[in-house]
Structure formats: structure tokens, C-alpha cells
Design goal:
Layout: H1 2-18, H2 22-33, H3 39-46, H4 52-82, H5 104-118, E1 122-123, E2 129-130, H6 132-135, E3 154-155, E4 161-162, H7 168-176, E5 181-190, E6 202-212, H8 217-232, E7 238-245, E8 248-257, E9 275-284, H9 286-291, E10 300-307, H10 308-316, H11 329-332
Parallel strand pairs: 1-5
Antiparallel strand pairs: 2-4, 3-4, 5-6, 6-10, 7-8, 8-9, 9-10
Helix pairs in contact: 1-2, 1-4, 2-4, 5-8, 5-10
This protein binds 3,4-dihydroxyphenylalanine.
Length: 335
């Protein structure tokens, strides 16, 4: 009898664990605890036939089994009643997927590379850690030029520097190649500037260089005016002002009509002038061509350089250069 009760308990446990719905639990109850044909009840009915000494123990075991099973059934029924339905609830809102975006700085860089690409300029790159030759000497920047001072350039302990302009890439390209050359060089540059809304110690420039026979200032104006119109729209005019850079002669700065007060009425961004300075440019200085063994009597060229942050700030109406590097999603999600 003891062995029969043990087996019955095992069967009850198996039946219980396979019963997942209230209906299935009810079937287990009827099969084991049912009044007439319940399997526990049947064994109770057989107790009378046992000898006195084993009857007592078998009775106790059967009682235990019966109360354990009723308790378990109750618990399982309660759990089944409070459990969620088997089917998924189609009205629950989905889990949002955050799709990444490109930083506006890279959008701007790629737009510029595309624009100059259509004009036949290919992309060139150079290292961010440079020697004085590429950052200064070959670019006709004399030894006593203020740009060489430590408050304008990061000097490394080994004597190298962090490039303060992408003009270095002009030299790297011209040392390796002969004209015709048409390249743009986007990249990161560094200056020990105090960070504020318009300055950063780390920012980006895109450099341009075209060297060939018979390149004129007219070519420079044509290329840069087209770039400005493509970025800021046909309506805004450009102008060239005389300026000075050691590596170009003559040199100029190019302005575009202020995109914020739509050309001329004057606003805080253009400080009332109606014009905004975009970039520096000029005809490649003969000394630079000579430094890279290109004969200035045969070849001429133009060059330009601009800050990508600045071009993007003017295009998108961004008023703080720090936003590009802060990874603030409220800012980045707008592009
Ligand atoms: N390298 C200059 C700067 O960082 C920008 C520049 C001016 C580049 C004139 C040029 C150029 O190639 O011709 O301010």
C-alpha cells in the first residue's frame, strides 16, 4: 500500500505540472480527488482491508497526499486566474528603435567634398601630427611669424606639432605629384584657443588646391562662387576682399551675403554689415611651388581653406561651435 501511495503522489505531481489552464486543473482534481471515482478516495476505501498496524500509517500518508494536492490545486488555480492571457496584447505600444544619425559636421563635410568633386577635385588627406616643414616652412611661413608661437600652435615634446591648418596637405600632395593637381583635403586641426561659442581647440577645415598651367584668379573666383551658391543658394552674392596669407600672393578673403538677414538689412550675426566672412584663398605663392620643386614659371595655382564648423553654422543657423562635439541628442536629432 505504501508503495502504491508513493506512485500515486508521483502521478499527481506529473499531472499537476502538465496542467496549464483552469480546465486542465479541474480535470486533475476530478481524477484524484473526485467523490466517487477519485483515485485517492478509492485507496481510502481499501484501508479497511489492511492489517491494523499498517492501516494507521497508510491512512496518514493518504491524508497527507489529499491535503497536499488540494492545496496545490488551489494555488495553481489562483495563479492561472491572475496570469496574463496566452496571446500577446496587440494594443501594447511597441519598443521604440533609436535610429542613429550623422553629425551635421560630417554632413557638411560630405556636401563640400561632393560639390568640389563635381568640379574635378579629388580628396587627399595628411597626418594630424606634423613637422614644422609641412605646417610652416614649406608654406612660406617665416621663422619669426607669430603663427609659430606656442599660443597659436600645439607643440609636442618630440618637436613635432599638431597641425594648425589643413594647408599642410597642399605640400604633402605637391611633393609626391606633378600638375595638373586638383584636390580638397578635409580634416581635423588644432589650436590652443580658449573654448567659447565660436572657438574650439579642435575643429575641422577643408583645404583646396588647384595647380596647372594657366590657372588664374578668375578660376579661383569661379570655383568658390559656385561653391557658395550651391551651399547657400543662388540669391546670396559673394565678394572677395584683399587679405594676406604667407602661402598665397595675392590673397583674399571671400564673404557671402548674410543668410540670416537675407542679404543686407543687417543683423547680430553679420554685425549689421550684411556680409559674413567664409574663407581665405589666393594664388599659390611662387615660393611654395619652388619648395616642392614645381616651376612657378610654368605652373600657377590657387588655394583656399575654410572651417567646416563655420560653414555648417552659417548654413544651419547653429550658434555655438561646442554643440558639434557634445553629443547632445536634442541637438543631433535635428539633422
Ligand atoms: N590655412 C588658413 C587658415 O587656417 C586658411 C587658408 C587661407 C588656406 C588661404 C588657404 C589659403 O589655402 O590660400 O586660416
Amino acid at each position: 500500500m505504501k508503495e502504491t501511495i508513493r506512485k500515486l503522489r508521483q502521478e499527481a505531481e506529473d499531472a499537476l505540472s502538465g496542467a496549464l489552464s483552469p480546465d486542465a486543473l479541474e480535470q486533475v482534481r476530478v481524477s484524484f480527488l473526485g467523490r466517487k471515482q477519485g483515485r485517492i478516495g478509492i485507496l481510502f476505501g481499501q484501508l479497511g482491508r489492511l492489517p491494523e498496524d499498517s492501516r494507521k500509517e497508510a491512512g496518514r500518508l493518504l491524508n497527507d497526499l489529499r491535503s497536499w494536492l488540494s492545496r496545490s490545486l488551489e494555488e495553481r488555480l489562483a495563479a492561472a486566474a491572475s496570469a496574463p492571457a496566452d496571446l500577446p496584447d496587440p494594443t501594447v505600444p511597441g519598443i521604440p528603435v533609436n535610429v542613429g544619425r550623422r553629425n551635421p559636421l560630417l554632413l557638411m563635410r560630405d556636401e563640400l567634398v561632393d560639390i568640389f568633386g563635381t568640379l574635378g577635385f579629388e580628396v587627399a588627406t595628411g597626418p594630424e601630427v606634423e613637422t614644422g616643414w609641412y605646417n610652416f616652412d614649406a608654406l612660406n611661413i617665416p621663422p619669426d611669424h607669430p603663427a609659430r608661437e606656442s599660443f597659436d600652435t600645439f607643440f609636442l615634446e618630440d618637436g613635432n606639432i599638431l597641425r594648425s591648418q589643413t594647408s599642410t596637405v597642399q605640400i604633402r600632395v605637391m611633393e609626391k605629384r606633378r600638375p595638373p593637381i586638383r584636390i580638397v583635403a578635409p580634416g581635423r586641426v588644432f589650436r590652443p584657443d580658449t573654448v567659447d561659442s565660436t572657438h574650439h581647440h579642435t575643429f575641422h577645415q577643408i583645404e583646396g588646391l588647384a595647380v596647372d598651367t594657366d590657372v588664374t584668379f578668375g578660376d579661383l573666383k569661379g570655383v568658390l562662387s559656385m561653391f557658395a551658391h550651391l551651399v547657400y543658394g543662388e540669391k546670396l552674392d559673394t565678394r572677395f576682399r584683399p587679405s594676406f596669407f604667407p602661402f598665397t600672393e595675392p590673397s583674399a578673403e571671400m564673404d557671402v551675403q548674410c543668410p540670416f538677414c537675407s542679404a543686407g538689412s543687417g543683423c547680430p550675426v553679420c554685425k549689421g554689415s550684411g556680409w559674413i566672412e567664409l574663407l581665405g584663398c589666393g594664388m599659390v605663392d611662387p615660393n611654395v611651388l619652388t619648395a616642392v620643386d614645381i616651376d612657378p614659371a610654368v605652373y600657377s595655382g590657387f588655394a583656399f581653406g575654410m572651417g567646416i564648423e563655420r560653414i555648417a553654422m552659417m548654413k544651419y543657423g547653429i550658434n555655438d561651435i561646442r554643440l558639434f562635439l557634445e553629443n547632445d541628442l536634442r541637438f543631433l536629432a535635428q539633422f
